[in-house]
Specification:
This protein has 69 residues and is mainly alpha-helical. The chain has one domain: Rhodanese-like domain (Oxidized Rhodanese, domain 1). The chain contains three helices and two strands; from the N terminus they run αβαβα. The longest helix is centred in the first third of the chain and has 15 residues. It is elongated, with a radius of gyration of 13 Å. The relative contact order is 0.18.
Amino acid sequence: MYRERKVDFATRAAKELDSGKPVLVYCRSGRRSAEAAAALVKLGFADVRDLDGGILAWEKAGQPIIKPE
């Protein structure tokens, strides 16, 4: 199932995202987003940014988090 999710991500990204525009990916700890960023680069995305350490590191650094109401 894990492999299927990775394939599904790559398929959806190729269809739904513009490879010529910057893309920022993040997750809770940074592990999954690092994999996603690598997959996007492999698909030909030129400007891929990954939030190192995920949202936990962002929050620990005192950066703002805006949550929907």
